[in-house]
Amino acid sequence: xxxxxxxxxxxxxxxxxxxxxxxxxxxxxxxxxxxxxxxxxxxxxxxxxxxxxxxxxxxxxxxxxxxxxxxxxxxxxxxxxxxxxxxxxxxxxxxxxxxxxxxxxxxxxxxxxxxxxxxxxxxxxxxxxxxxxxxxxxxxxxxxxxxxxxxxxxxxxxxxxxxxxxxxxxxxxxxxxxx
Length: 179
Hints:
alpha+beta; Nucleoside Triphosphate Pyrophosphohydrolase; 5 helices
């Protein structure tokens, strides 16, 4: 079954807190119940892949300013049928940043988050079951260009707090020291 590799990764994942534990369990149930969980055509929600991109010394984090959502976020996006969510995270990070030095740090899941996406045009409000992986990149490499992105930049861990207000991003920031 095409969902088994993701289910295995989710069952091996060690959530950081009770909130992430609940989201991990909800994601397991969602994946088990929906054979088409990797397709954005599943309008109640779908699996997405994201990249928490850090510098090799773990002192900087790469964030993108998403054009549609008008927020600083980690790179990521829709699986579009691909059950290899780590590959999705890497592909989306490359597409959104233009960086070629991106490397997957580990094949295990770094973070799990379930969040609501507001309705837009013909797409109703739905959930993203976001599977996040830790990636490294060279902070001296130049960025590419993407229509989806208003801005891309490296943030020091301290400076990042002035630009984001998402507990899921703060949770990933706290995890950097343990990886």
